[in-house]
Amino acid sequence: MVEARNRIKDNIEEAVGELPEAAREAAGIIGRMIASIVDSLSRYDRKSAQTVLVLEEKLNRLDERVKDYYSESLSQFGLADLTGLAILDFINFCERIGDRLANIAQSLLSGGLWHGTHDDK
User: Fold this and answer.
1) What's the half-sphere exposure (Cβ side, CA atoms, 13 Å) at 47?
2) Nearest residue to 98 via CA among 66, 59, 50
3) What is the pTM of this model?
4) Which of 9, 47, 55, 71 is the most buried (most CB within 10 A)?
5) CATH class of the domain at 2-109
6) pLDDT (tens digit, 9 = 90+) per residue, 12-70?
7) How far apart are CA 41 and CA 35, in angstroms?
8) What is the pLDDT of residues 33-44, one digit of tens each?
C-alpha cells in the first residue's frame, strides 16, 4: 500500500479527478472500518461489527467502479499512466484490507469472541 502511495506523482490529497477522489474515499472507508472494529472489540458491539460488513460492500463497489472507469478510459481514449495504475493498486490494497476487517467482523458476529454474552446490544 505504501509502495503504491509512493508511486503516485501528485499529492493525492490535492489531486482532482475520478481516481484521486476514489482513493480518498477508499482510505476514508478503511478508517471507518478500523474504528468500527475497535469499537466492536472494546464494547462487544454487534452493530459496529455489522457496520464493517456494510462498509466492506461499499468498498467492493468502489473498487469495481474504479476498475471499470479506468478500463473505459483506456479503451476510449487510450489513456494510461503510472499514476492511474498506482491509484488502482492503492484502492485494491484498501479493498484487501477491507476483506480482512470483514473477516474479523464476521468472526465476532458468529460468536468468535462473544462467549455467549453481551448479545443484548
Assistant:
1) 3
2) 59
3) 0.79
4) 55
5) mainly alpha
6) 666 678 888 999 999 999 999 999 999 999 988 899 999 999 999 999 999 999 999 88
7) 10
8) 999 999 999 988
Transcribe 20-62 into DSSP letters: HHHHHHHHHHHHHHHHHHHHHHHHT-HHHHHHHHHHHHHHHHH
Q: Is 94 helix (H, G, I), strand (E, B) or coil?
A: helix
- Number of residues in the chain: 121
- The torsion region of residue 11 among left (phi > 0), alpha (psi -120 to 50) and beta comes to beta
Domain residue ranges of the chain, discontinuous segments joined by +: 2-109
Contact 69, 19 (CB under 8 A): yes
Name the grid cell of 117. Answer: 454474552
Q: Which residues, 6+ apart, have CB-to-CB distance to 45 below 8 Å?
A: 39, 121
